[in-house]
Amino acid sequence: MKADQNELLTRVGPGTPCGALLRRYWQPVALVDEFDPVLDPRMASRPVKAVRALGQDLVLFRNAQGAWGLLDRDCPHRGADLSFGRNEGDGLRCPFHGWKFDVNGKCLQTPAEPTGSKLCERVRQRSYPVLERSGILFAWLGEEGAAPPPFPNFDCFAAPSSHTFAFKGLWNANWLQAFEVGIDPAHPSFLHRFLNDEALEGVGDNAAGKQFRSASAGEFGGERWPMTRIMREFHQPEISFEPTPWGMQLTALRPMTDELTHVRITHAIFPHTFVIPLSETLTITQMHLPVDDTHTYWYSVFTSFAGPVDKEAMRNQRLQYISLPDYIPKSGRHNRWGFNPEEQLTKTYLGMGEDDINVHDQWAVESMGPIQDRTREHLGTSDKVIMANRRTLLKAIETVQAGGVAPGVADASQAPAMAGPDTVDGIAPAGTWPTWWKQQVQAKRDGAPWIAGSAVRPELIE
After folding, report:
1. Rounded to whole angstroms, how far apart are CA atoms 77 and 57?
2. Residue 446: enclosing H or E segment and its boundaries?
3. What's the start-to-end Cα distance of the chain, in Å?
4. What sign does the CA torsion over 427, 352, 303, 384 have?
């Protein structure tokens, strides 16, 4: 990739071409959990947070009626930081001169001005629409006065609260390299390789590493194989992709015998979300918020197609590796991501732990540097998804610059198509795997209590 292209795709601040594109999409800016006094006692008396997204400094707060407000952080009077403002129930007051703003940015008071002053009526702080979905607060940072696109009705947002859990973490790197690691179908065979397997019984708990060892659907030689063994022993996937209304459907086939093949279907939702299976009944939808050019928050929604999720257990398991209140990983460049050379020889390919495979991805993302220098890379056939996504991103930037509509979930005309998307991970008959995976998905959907009774998805009908 040329240096100017790399620059174009990675810079996201106000006034940048990529930033203009990304502002056409709803962006995750906080977890609802961040306002839970149990997790952050400061929120009991003052539900106000400084947030940063797409290189913009913002303040997020909740008023006494429970409404969310997201405003530019610099007070329109003389630029003081509104994240230190007084939350007075009906609005946020700047401590500098007492100017007060409601959740919509309307100026309520300018108390130092003379009696009868009309200044307040002429001032408005820029505010941004906020939606709450599946435990995440989403904001639309597009041009003032422009209408945001409909929010997509993907499974992770359609499922009830009882069947979803949301979490996040900060990576010290650019958004694009974070997303590209996630959509790479080849990397699990190496980055997440376990050198030995555990018994399948009792491993389906909330530890990501243990879930990665859970059984893949289907049998091989009369046995149910853990995904770790399949990824380790069949490490040259046949990768293909096809366009979807939201981005790409990715297929990775790992032929095992003449009769059987391992099938993994995942999705890339443009511009920075992927959907993958974690088990036969649990999916992960992971979004990547560009905080600025060199920092990214990943947001994950775990969606159950079986029973309710145990949010507290899932949260507590992940808090072993992430520090509140800012969701900062305990491992990182400062401690070499917990690298253990002995483990690398005997347990894992990477040597950075067995229970939290998220740190594996963190290392891959952060070790490239704050912004990956793509002029130095040498891509191969297994990188075809990466190349396709970059072409889509370049074309989308060009389209928006020309005044066109951004693709995928930013295109309101495509809103009815934003459902699913469906994933699978399993051992299938080699000749009929396209039918097999759709049958697996339909069985999963038929078993989901929150989908029961709904119509069969048209694309699952032969």
Report:
1. 16
2. helix 433-447
3. 41
4. negative
DSSP alpha helix (H) spans, 246-383: 311-318, 341-346, 358-366
Nearest-CA neighbor of 305 among 420, 432, 172? 420
Contact 331, 321 (CB under 8 A): yes
The answer to pTM > 0.90 is yes
Token match 């594996």: residue? 360
Contacts of residue 381, Cβ cutoff 8 Å, sequence gap at least 6: 239
List of residues 6+ apart from 81 with CB closer than 8 A: 50, 73, 74, 75
Judge whether 17 and 271 are in contact, CB under 8 Å: no
Pull the structure tokens for residue 157. Answer: 């947002």
Domains with residue ranges and CATH for the chain: 27-139 (2.102.10.10), 155-460 (no CATH)
Centre a 10 Å sphere on the Cβ of residue 414 and count the other Cβ atoms it contains.
17
Place of tokens 């879930």: 211
Residue 109 in 3-state DSSP? strand
- Per-residue pLDDT for the chain (462 aa), expressed as one digit of tens each? 999 999 999 999 999 999 999 999 999 999 999 999 999 999 999 999 999 999 999 999 999 999 999 999 999 999 999 999 999 999 999 999 999 999 999 999 999 999 999 999 999 999 999 999 999 999 999 999 999 999 999 999 999 999 999 999 999 999 999 999 999 999 999 999 999 887 655 444 555 556 566 667 677 777 778 888 888 999 999 999 999 999 999 999 999 999 999 999 999 999 999 999 988 899 999 999 999 999 999 999 999 999 999 999 999 999 999 999 999 999 999 999 999 999 999 999 999 998 888 999 999 999 999 999 999 999 999 999 999 999 999 999 999 999 999 999 999 999 999 999 999 999 999 999 999 999 999 999 999 999 965 544 545 544
Q: Look at phi and psi of residue 288 and say left if phi exceeds 0, alpha if psi is from -120 to 50, else beta.
A: beta
**β-strand partners of 287:** 273, 299
